[in-house]
Amino acid sequence: MSEEEKIRRLAELKTLLEKRVRELETELDGLRALLEFVDAFLLEKGFKRAELARPAEAPSPPPVEAAPPTEHERVIPIKTVTGEPLANLYVAEDVIRVVPVEDKKFNVNTPPFTSFLLNKVLSKMQEKDRKAVMAGEIPPDKILSYQVLRDGDIIREMVIRNVTPERLRELKSTIRWTLEKMWEKMARKP
């Protein structure tokens, strides 16, 4: 095979590879859009799952408030579908504080806290806000931000700032679902 023939074949191969990369990128964009649709649908439905008949359980102790609300906050208790208290949501004008109840020791390494709540939900909201800033739709100081206050790996409090009223319901549902999944994993450990 001559040098000229090799170059011609490599050029054809390059063209085929570029075409395939474009096709895969288009497919990936479609899959991402589909995933966002599924995520949005699940969040809208509050991650409710079918309820099975459960045996009678002993009543759980009353929830213990981990941190008192400030003057301008309202408190929303976060509970499992069975009524087990998980945390309190302290909601102010555009800030949410998530404080686990005193007897719950949620570890940041317990799924789906980091993998879902931080990396998929909150990071996506930040990304969307950054795009809105670039488009001139919101000022830079209105980008959603969050901070996890911990004692070692144990979550003491989570503060989410620049929460719009539209996002409050979604975040409340997502946080409840995340903490419930974490609690289920914690309860299974011996």
Descriptive key words:
190 residues, alpha+beta, 2 domains, five-stranded antiparallel beta sheet, elongated
Descriptive notes:
This protein has two domains: 45 residues; 115 residues, no CATH class. With 190 residues, it is α+β, with helices and mostly antiparallel strands. About 11% of the residues have low confidence. It is built from three helices and five strands. The protein has a five-stranded antiparallel β-sheet, covered by helices on one side.
Write the topology of this structure.
Elements: H1 3-44, E1 74-79, E2 85-91, E3 95-100, H2 113-134, E4 145-151, E5 154-161, H3 165-188
Antiparallel strand pairs: 1-2, 2-3, 3-5, 4-5
Helix pairs in contact: 2-3
Low-confidence stretches: 48-67
Helix content: 40-55%
Strand content: 15-25%
What string gives the helices and strands in order? HEEEHEEH
Q: How can the largest sheet be summarized? A: 5 strands, antiparallel
Q: How many H/I helical runs?
A: 3
The number of domains is 2
- The chain-level structural class is alpha+beta
Beta strand count: 5
Using the CA coordinates, give the radius of gyration.
23 Å
Terminal-residue CA separation = 68 Å
Q: Any idea what the shape is?
A: elongated
